[in-house]
C-alpha cells in the first residue's frame, strides 16, 4: 500500500532522517522489504511543524516518485523541524494526483494512513455523507484515507484522538458489513496536533500492516557506542515508521496488533485499541 515516517524531538534538519539512513523513507519508496508492494512510487508528501511553533504545519506534495524528486531533496536539506511526517504512496485505485497524497492537513493537524477501506466504491457514499457538512468542502481528493480523516474530525479528533479514530473505524466497519464486506478496514494511521503523536495499528482481519517505533536514544548509545550518527539526535528524539530505517538490531520495536502508541514529551505510552462499540 504505502510507507510512512514520523519524527518528534529537538529540532532536526529533516534530511538526516528522510534521506540519509540506509533504509530511509525515500529509499523505501523504491524498495520496501516489509511493504505489501516493494515500490511506492505514486507520489509522496512531506509535512513539518515550524521550530517556533507559530502557524500551521508546512506541506509539500508531489506525484513524482520520491526517490528522484530534486525538490524533496532540496527541501529536506533546508527544513529544520521538531516534528515532521513523510509518506510515500502506492496507489491502490484512486488516481495519482497531488490531492491524493498524504499527509492530509486540517488547521494544525496532520494525518496519514497506510492500508485501505475494502470495497471503497461500494461504501463511499455512506461514509462521505456522514462527514460534517462544514468539513465536506475540504475533501479535495478521492482517497478512502482522506474520507477517514474527515470522519475522525467529525467524530471529535481534536478533543479525543483515540476515541475519534475508534469511532471512525467502527463506523467504517458497520457500513462495510451492511454492504457484505467481510473485512472492511486495514491499516496503520498516524495523526498529530503538532505536539503529541498518535499511531494506530489495526485491521478488521487482525493482520495489520507493519508498524515500529524507535528504542530510546540513550539505550541505543549504550548498545552502539561507536555509532557516530547517534550523536546527531537529542535524548528525546523518537521516530515511528512503517518499517525500520536502519539495520541496527534492537533499534526498533514492533507496535503490537490492535494497539495505539502515543508519543509526547514524556516518551511513548501504549494502549490496546479497538473500534468503539466492537
TrEMBL record:
Every Glutamine amidotransferase type-2 domain range: 2-266
Record keywords: Glutamine amidotransferase
Superkingdom of the source species: Bacteria
One Pfam family this sequence matches: GATase_4
PROSITE patterns cross-referenced by the UniProt entry: GATASE_TYPE_2
Listed name of the protein: Class II glutamine amidotransferase
Amino acid at each position: 500500500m504505502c510507507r510512512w515516517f514520523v519524527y518528534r524531538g529537538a529540532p532536526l534538519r529533516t534530511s538526516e532522517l528522510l534521506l540519509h539512513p540506509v533504509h530511509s523513507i525515500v529509499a523505501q519508496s523504491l524498495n520496501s522489504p516489509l511493504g505489501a508492494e516493494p515500490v511506492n512510487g505514486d507520489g509522496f508528501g512531506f509535512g513539518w511543524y515550524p521550530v517556533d511553533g507559530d502557524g500551521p504545519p508546512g506541506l509539500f506534495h508531489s506525484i513524482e516518485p520520491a526517490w528522484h524528486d530534486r525538490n524533496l531533496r532540496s527541501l529536506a536539506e533546508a527544513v529544520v523541524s521538531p516534528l515532521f511526517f513523510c509518506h510515500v504512496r502506492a496507489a491502490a485505485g484512486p488516481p495519482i494526483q497531488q490531492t491524493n497524497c498524504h499527509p492530509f492537513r486540517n488547521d494544525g493537524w496532520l494525518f496519514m494512513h497506510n492500508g485501505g477501506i475494502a470495497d471503497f466504491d461500494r461504501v463511499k457514499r455512506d461514509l462521505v455523507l456522514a462527514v460534517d457538512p462544514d468539513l465536506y468542502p475540504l475533501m479535495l481528493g478521492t482517497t478512502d484515507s482522506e474520507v477517514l480523516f474527515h470522519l475522525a474530525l467529525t467524530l471529535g479528533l481534536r478533543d479525543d484522538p483515540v476515541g475519534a479514530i475508534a469511532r471512525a473505524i467502527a463506523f467504517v466497519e458497520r457500513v462495510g458489513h451492511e454492504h457484505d464486506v467481510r473485512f472492511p478496514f486495514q491499516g496503520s494511521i498516524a495523526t498529530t496536533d503538532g505536539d503529541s503523536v498518535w499511531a494506530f495499528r489495526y485491521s478488521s482481519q487482525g493482520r495489520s500492516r507493519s508498524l515500529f517505533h524507535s528504542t530510546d536514544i540513550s539505550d541505543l548509545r549504550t548498545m552502539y557506542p561507536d555509532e557516530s550518527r547517534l550523536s546527531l539526535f537529542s535524548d528525546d528524539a523518537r521516530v515511528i515508521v512503517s518499517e525500520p530505517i536502519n539495520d541496527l538490531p534492537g533499534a526498533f520495536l514492533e507496535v503490537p496488533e490492535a494497539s495505539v502508541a502515543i508519543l509526547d514529551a514524556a516518551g511513548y505510552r501504549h494502549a490496546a485499541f479497538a473500534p468503539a462499540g466492537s
